[in-house]
Amino acid sequence: MSDYNNLLDEDVEYILNLPYHLSMAGLAGELCKLLIEFDFIEHKISASAPQLLIADYDLTFASEIEISKLKKDSLRLIQGAIRKSAHILNEPENKTQLAGHLLARLLCFPAPEIQALLEQAKHEKNYPWLRPLTASLTPPGGALVRTLTGHTNYVTAIAITPDGQTVISTSNDDTLKVWDLTTNTLRHTLRGHTDRVLAIAMTPDGHFAVSGSKDKTLKLWDIANGIEIKTLIGHTSFVNSVAIASDGQWVISGSWGIGNALKLWDLVENKHYTLAGNLRVNAIAMTPDGQVAISGLDDNTLVLWDCSGIPLHKLTGHTGAIDAVAITPDAKLAISGSKDTTLKLWDLTNGTELKTLAGHTQAINAVAITPDGKLAVSGSADHTLKVWNLVNGEEINTFTEHTNWVKAVALTPDGKLAVSGSADQTIKIWDLTNSSKQPGEAGHANWVRAVAIAPSGKFAISGSADQTLKIWDLAGCKELNTLKGHTNWVRTVAISPDGRIAISGSIDKTLKLWDLATGKECGTLIGHTSTVNAVAIAPDGRTAVSGSFDDTLKVWDLTTCSELYTFTGHSGDIWAVAIAPDGQKVVSASSDKTLKLWDLASGAEILTFTGHTDYVTAVAITPNGQTIISGSVDRTLKLWNLASGVELCTLVGHKDYINAIAVTPDGRKAISAGYDNALKVWDLESRQEITNFIGDSAMFCCAVAPDGVTIVAGEASGRSHFMRFEEK
To answer: CA-CA distance, 52 to 438, in Å (whole number)?
Structure first.
């Protein structure tokens, strides 16, 4: 290994460009060796943008570079892993995440070059870090190519230039962003709208774009220079859809405006015309010749228009509002997506329905058609994209890596890539030609919302939105059993002190007891009238306390599966519960922005803790019973004196909601899981963040094993993270 920390200034640039020099000199072996050297990869990531390192690997794939196919395959996987983590590694504060991300993406690949790289990554760290024990992030390969980040709110619409090199995204953060699709870098941020930007369309020459906004205006933008040209005023409500004719002169826009719901704009003459009045237009598409438009309406219908303003056909068949519509390049067919979770294929010549495409489980927000007219890609509130064969109506593929509503989708002119925008604030690029299955550990099929570790430290149990629980062997990080019985999301889980019983709570309003030796359900606790969001078991193992969205806590006798009593006092949902080590006190966290301390024996409220400015969503108590740690939607953690209720300090570092907190057995560290995809480790003595790990999606839960260094966390991707905290 090389030392890149003591380079002379004149050597820094040479080292960064060393792959290019080696490729020009035909030194294939040295080039390959360099690009599987962890120290070099880490140095280049820390000194430059990840994209420059990604480009270095392209040098090895040239036909004249004599590297074996097996080694090239390994280099492609390493490049793919860096590409999938580029949006994280690009942030200065995340440069130290490289080792963790390589391990979490590549551990499942046995190639010797990859395993050698990972061995290097494990050693010689001069800082604390969280070491993944399994391949717990999306591995290279598969359809997902890359993730782009930068918007600070929902991504609402996507457009791609005709040359396929530029993407424009719009967002509820009031901005548009222009991205270089060849280098996956941000070119411009366009500001000018004063409210959410909801729609975007590109002129056929790719030089200009028109956006629609909640501020009731449209704006024309010069894409190359990133400047606003003009503002189009005329709508009386938010503009939520826009399309441009092939000549680039005419724009059609849709709104919920009274008297001017559908408008036609002449960009050259600066004139506009009202085509339709009192409609609620959600989506618009235009035929390539600009002569016919189709609008999706909030009344569950579509209307086909002659662009002179004459309605040609009204299309009926959906049972929900139409939020997405697209037209095939030959202008013969249209496809619509609805809140009724289906897509429908229509014959535009006569307005008849041809097929219904079913498969999504929630509202469909976006749809696009490939240039050859054979495939469609839809995006849904179920967090997925689906690829459809328009000839036979069959589903071809499903992409699952978004963690919130998919709001937008666009396709490159060659039909090979799809670009999607989501309420998770990311843009993802997908290879439609790649349908290969990804390797890696089995996991849940939906969000992992809860996790607990047995007192023995030998196994963990996770609960998921897929309605199941899974038991995991911690030593081998292997799945042992799947527990089925809940009829809705599992939101919480706890394990008894003797490790024999688990108790889970669900959106189905019940708690269930499980025999962990047999995997059999051994009791159901019924009494809450809403989602059971939290549960804890007392040290004696005979009593449990649950918290619910019905604003109450309930105390249960686990030997008889009966309710003992109910605590009332919160004025909002109960999000988290913890029982003090002495078994005498309970702490609850609520959406009323407070925590409450209760006497477990009498049910009396002892103290109320105020200080958070939003929902309190997580709580833990230190092993000595003296300190409470809480986490909130206000993005902070707070330490409190349990006896007095006095706030001790506030820990700041998360960029989004805090979902869960765990404390190490020695009481010296806390681990927090956040909606910002971060798992953070805090030193409770110095009250400082020690290290963190950024995942592919929101971290919903975390637990610490009795050894104090093994951590299990659950992610929105459905994967469970098995990690080890390692000191310097």
So the answer is: 26
Closest CA to 88 of 72, 99, 77, 78: 99
Q: If you average pLDDT over residues 113-133, what whole number do you get?
A: 91
Q: Say yes or no to pLDDT of 62 above 90.
A: no
CA atoms within 13 A on the CB side of 86: 27
Instruction: Map residue 38 onto helix, strand or coil.
Output: helix
Report DSSP state, residue 728: -
Between the alpha carbon of residue 275 and those of residues 231, 260, 331, 723, the distances in Å are: 20, 7, 21, 59
Q: For residue 439, is pLDDT > 70? A: no
Confidence band of 340 (pLDDT split at 50, 70, 90): very high
Give rounded-to-5 percent helix, strand, coil for the chain.
10, 45, 40
Annotate 335-371 with three-state secondary structure.
Answer: EEEECCCEEEEEECCCCEEEEEEECCCCCEEEEEECC
What is the crossing angle of helices 112-122 and 38-47, to 10°? Answer: 70
User: Measured between alpha carbons, how far is 709 from 666 in angstroms, rounded to an integer?
Assistant: 11
Say whether pLDDT at 323 is over 90.
Answer: yes
- What CA–CA distance (Å, rounded) separates 603 from 600? 5
What per-residue confidence (pLDDT) applies to 127?
87
Name residue, tokens 């938010």. 238
Closest to 96 measured CA to CA, from 54, 75, 126: 126
Q: What is the per-residue pLDDT for 437?
A: 54
Q: Please write the tens of the pLDDT for every residue from 182-205.
A: 888 999 999 999 999 999 999 999
Distance, CA of 678 to CA of 693 (rounded, Å):
6
Beta bridge partners of 261: none
End-to-end CA distance of the chain: 19
Query: What CA dihedral angle connects 582, 586, 587 and 591, to 10 degrees?
Result: 160
For 674, list phi and psi in degrees, rounded to 5: -130, 160
Q: How many CA atoms lie within 13 A of 695 on its CB side?
A: 33
Distance between CA atoms of residues 500 and 618, nearest Å: 25
Q: Is the pLDDT of residue 344 over 50?
A: yes
For the packed helices 50-59 and 38-47, what is the interaxial angle rounded to 10 degrees? 130
User: Can you say how many angstroms the Cα of residue 178 is from the centroid of all Cα atoms in its chain?
Assistant: 21
CA 293 remoteness from chain centre: 34
**Dihedral of alpha carbons 180, 184, 405, 398, sign:** positive
DSSP 8-state code for residue 318: -
In the 8-state DSSP scheme, what is residue 415? S
Across the range 455-477, mean pLDDT stands at 94
Burial code of 77-97, b = ≥16 C-beta within 10 A, e = fewer? bbbbbbbbbbbbbbeeebebb
pLDDT tens readout for residues 379-410: 999 999 999 999 999 999 999 889 899 999 99
Mean of the per-residue pLDDT values for the chain?
A: 93
CB atoms within 10 A of CB 29: 12
Token pair 């019983």 in the structure block, residue: 501
> With contact defined as beta carbons under 8 Å apart, do 166 and 135 qualify?
no
Do residues 178 and 115 make contact, with C-beta atoms less than 8 angstroms apart? no
CA 558 to chain centre: 37
Element at 629 (helix H, strand E): strand 627-632
Which one-letter amino acid corresponds to residue 648? Answer: L
- Of 38, 160, 166, 194, the C-alpha closest to 102 is 38
